[in-house]
Amino acid sequence: MDEIVTQQATGEKNQVSLASRNIVMDVRDITKSLPLGRERIDILKGISFQILSGEFVSIVGPSGSGKSTLLGIIAGLDNPTSGQVLVDGIDIARMSEGKLAAVRNQKIGMVFQAFNLIPTLTAQENVEVPLYVGKHKGSPSARAKQLLTLVGLSHRLGHRPSQLSGGEQQRVAIARALSTDPAIVIADEPTGNLDARNGENVLSLIADLRAQTGKTFIIATHDPNVASHADHAIRIVDGLVGDIDATGGRITQ
Ligand SMILES: Nc1ncnc2c1ncn2[C@@H]1O[C@H](COP(=O)(O)OP(=O)(O)OP(=O)(O)O)[C@@H](O)[C@H]1O
Ligand SMILES: [Mg+2]
């Protein structure tokens, strides 16, 4: 409320700077088309949305609608055919691979459906890995222990992924995504390989972490239960944003 009053009182110029201060991700007219035989298929046809600092946003839509493609692009793992992805005001869509790797390491944590942990490393070592990639303050092992404690795995530091349950592996992956203290955590179907109870545990963990850390969480999901935990849902239909549901994401698919 105060902010709205301030914006009205100080005019349009400040309105823009106040608004942009809180936008951690600004996705502008993203398209993605890929060759398929002699044709090209248009997977994303012009997606735009903004995500504010500290928001928990779900990306929903039917299978094949382009959620994973979109997540890969906003995480800087894939290039769009056209459009911009501004992270803290900087376009990552056309960045060189070297610079992009640094942005991913510092600003974005990623969680995958299939956990994607390194099988030969222990839980603690998996969480330490991103801290050896860029320059980070403090001791990687102390940070990894702290994060594994935060996700309830202080008793599993020395276990390898094969010695952990699915829910535990996903909690290690979440700890790893948080290790470099990124502003944004992006998760693609993080509960997709878990049973209902473990899925619910991972989800409440994400909600707790969001409350404790103030980080932005962007989660692609089929699961209406996941979407209902989010502040709002961005629905992808036919390669476009169908609607943005600000009512807590109670949507049926
Ligand atoms: N490398 C590729 N080459 C050609 N088509 C692709 C490629 N990758 C994805 N697609 C197609 O793009 C569409 C979107 O795929 P995507 O994986 O983004 O969907 P999704 O919404 O994540 O689906 P799901 O809910 O099943 O995970 C699909 O029709 C898929 O077949
Ligand atoms: Mg997918």
Key traits:
globular, four-stranded antiparallel β-sheet, disordered N terminus, transmembrane transporter activity, binds magnesium ion, six-stranded mixed β-sheet, Rossmann fold, alpha/beta, 39% helix, 253 residues, nucleotide-binding, binds adenosine-5'-triphosphate, ATP binding, disordered C terminus, ATP hydrolysis activity
Could you characterize the architecture of this molecule?
The protein is globular, with a radius of gyration of 19 Å. The protein has a domain at 53-65 and 94-246: Rossmann fold (3-Layer(aba) Sandwich). Residues 1-18 and 248-253 have low confidence and may be disordered. The chain is of the alpha/beta class. It contains eight helices and ten strands. Helix 4 packs across helix 5 (140-150), helix 4 runs parallel beside helix 6 and helix 6 (166-178) packs parallel to helix 7. Residues 67-68, 188 line the site of magnesium ion. Pfam families: ABC_tran. Keywords: ATP-binding, Nucleotide-binding, Transport. It comes from Dictyobacter vulcani.
